Amino acid sequence: MAGNIIPAIATTNAMTASLCVLQAFKVMRGDLNKAKMVFLERSGARVVNSESLRPPNPDCPVCGVMSSRLVVDPSRATLNDLVQDILKSDLGYGDEFSINNDVGTLYDPDLEDNLSKKFSELGVGADSFLTIIDDDEENPRVNLSLSISEKSLPEDSKPVALPQQLEIPRKRIVDTTKAREHTNGNVAPPTAPAKRKRAGSSLEEPGIEGQKVAKRGKVQETDQEDDLVLVDGPSQGAIVIDD
């Protein structure tokens, strides 16, 4: 058996690597719709099975992010060109969104100081990334990640451009009406469980006055100023101490 381990490992690695390369060719050609997930299955009629790629899940923080490339002319492109020409005009963003990079926030509705600045002034160059976060409350889009690519564009064209038109999916909105349908829209706050009442005690809730109850008994004052009554229990009676 020991002599079969090395050939088995080499053969398995070669099969796995060849399957990966075949799918990598489809990715490099841009044929993502033809790429497959390939896996081994012992219980089926075929040892090697495949399955089509599934679309990104909008609720997933990893695959739910839309990625694309943004071509900018470094000599002319400003942040305002990205906001007006790409995000609002081409992609249909509203007013509630922000633009961020690895340093921090470059733009949001309350931060418009950087709109007139060029990408080079903001430290945004080739191979850097910008993340656009849609803050719309009703129907927000998933986050958009743009990879910056610098290129000299014609003077009569826009200084920023997308290589292809994007269809950015929307985030799913959880319907919370079903949770309130039996309460007519009014959800009662949770109530604290009632505490068990002590036998022989008239105190329903142990408050500040209830702190007078000791471990083995309680001390009560009588009408006389110098009399002290110590009550140990209902069967033990009371002891009155007179000075």
pLDDT average, as an integer? 77
List the total number of helices: 2
Low-confidence stretches: 201-222
Distance between the termini: 99 Å
Choose one word for the global shape: elongated
Q: Looking at the chains present, what oligomeric state does this protein adopt?
A: single chain
Report strand order across the widest sheet: 5-4-6-7-3-8
Task: List SSEs in N-to-C order.
Answer: HEEEHEEEEEEEE
Task: Calculate Rg over CA atoms.
Answer: 36 Å
Report on the biggest sheet: 6 strands, mixed
Give the fraction of residues assigned to helices. 10-25%
Beta strands, count:
11
Strand content: 15-25%
Task: Provide the structure class.
Answer: alpha+beta
Characterise this structure:
- There is one protein chain.
- By secondary structure, the chain is α+β, with helices and mostly antiparallel strands.
- The radius of gyration is 36 Å and the shape is elongated.
- A hairpin with a 6-residue loop joins strand 9 (about 220) and strand 10 (about 230-235).
- It starts with a helix and ends with a strand.
- The longest helix is centred in the first third of the chain and has 24 residues, at about 5-30.
- About 15% of the residues lie in helices and about 20% in strands.
- It contains two helices and eleven strands, in the order H-E-E-E-H-E-E-E-E-E-E-E-E.
Can you lay out the helices and strands and say which pair or pack?
Blueprint: H1 5-28, E1 36-40, E2 48-52, E3 66-72, H2 79-90, E4 97-100, E5 105-107, E6 129-134, E7 144-150, E8 160-161, E9 218-221, E10 228-233, E11 237-241
Parallel strand pairs: 3-7
Antiparallel strand pairs: 1-2, 3-8, 4-5, 4-6, 6-7, 9-10, 10-11
